[in-house]
Amino acid sequence: MKVAVVGAGWAGLAAASQCMALGMDVTLYEASHKAGGRARAVSDSRFGDLDNGQHLLIGAYRETLAMIARDVGADHLARVFKRLPLWLQSADGQFRLKKKLGLGHSTLTDAAALWCARGLGLRDKWRITSLLHRLKKDQQQPSDAETSTVSQWLLAQKQTPEACRWLWYPLCLATLNTSPSEACASLFQKVLIDSFTSHQADALDLLIPSCNLSELWPDTIAKRANVRFGQVVREIAPQVTGVAIDGVEFDACVLAVPPTNLERLVRHLDGFEQLAQQSSSFEFRSIATCYVSVGNHQPLPAPLLMFDHQTDTPGHIGQWVFDRQACMLTQPRAQLAFVVSCADHLDKIDDIELGRALVSQLKQALPSYTGSVIDARCFQEKRATFAALPGLHRPGTQTPHKRIMLAGDWTDTGYPAVIEGAVISGIKAADQIAVLAKGLSSGLQ
Ligand SMILES: Cc1cc2nc3c(=O)[nH]c(=O)nc-3n(C[C@H](O)[C@H](O)[C@H](O)COP(=O)(O)OP(=O)(O)OC[C@H]3O[C@@H](n4cnc5c(N)ncnc54)[C@H](O)[C@@H]3O)c2cc1C
Questions:
Q1: Number of domains in the chain
Q2: Which ligand 1 atom is nearest residue 55's CA?
């Protein structure tokens, strides 16, 4: 089977990897000159290797971690992440939730971590525990979760202001990149069910990449596949026994591009009108990452600190700060990475100015921090994620043409716009092509 995959983000790469594992002949088309899409390494003249945005994975990303282990090896997987058991800590020290090591995993050990959390009262903890218990028991969401926002759902679940402030709102913004007042409750529930109520021992581990994002896995697949870097695919032409990609014929293809690009590719195709319309209805939210090299740095109290998400204090810009020296395998200079979610308001801020403002936000929360800004490099991804709004219709893997499949974090993966969703969608598309191939060989298609 000769397969074209358009888009070498994590979804397209997963599709390519799975197709290759199934013995197919794969050609990858990628508009840019680097594999990884929205999760890729970027080379900077002053900072060296950076990523287009600081990423965080969790232990519940089963398919992603399994794919990295299969393609690059379990040793590599163990080496390229700094793995922390659940550990959320605010920069100002008011809040701390940390799972103790060595207690094994059960609902009880997670509950113990919660009941020992700093910054939450007994009532807050009781309400959180009850909510998690209900999610674990029911697993499926109530029907109005599709149309409710996260804030509405949390209110209906009698969550306290402090539980929202320190736990639910930060988790919502971090996973959905959409503010709780507009984010979709059912997607948020899916994230909570997969992480907080999972039977998997390490589902709640935080996995901070300790090498650049392309080295994690994308570069390996790009080296194995036949990749056409720098080729923007402009024409998909369905045929009776295949699909032509810019005039080159294949037996099948996977379109693993973001919704706006997909709309451009399929809007002229017969039968694809609804898909084109669906793709054009997505809204997006941006994320900014500001890498700051600091002098006179001292290690932060945790490799990852969160800022109080409910403060009106002037100068409150970022939500998270990563101590890169504590996370990266090779990080000769002290470096912090600040993450600003829903960052559309940050237009046209100078890198150094933003770096200074973020370090001063850190010092306001953690007055003992002595670091000072030497240099800063900021990346703002305007279309970092789709806005996870209630009632959003996301297309599945199959399209009106049986030889054209879709993949991408925005397709109907059940997850928000995260790496795990992208990888799942790619695997699904490849498996669907395998089904097609089987049908063809048995003369059923
Ligand atoms: C700043 C930032 C921070 C994030 N943080 C996290 C995080 O902490 N954890 C997490 O899990 N997720 C995070 N995400 C989300 C995660 O990066 C995405 O969900 C994932 O990378 C999406 O992969 P994808 O393959 O679906 O899409 P993309 O990565 O967008 O890949 C699509 C690819 O298609 C190519 N393409 C488009 N059109 C064409 C064409 N016509 N011809 C050829 N190629 C084309 C593009 O160049 C691109 O490489 C973050 C994203 C950003 C931007």
A1: 3
A2: 8
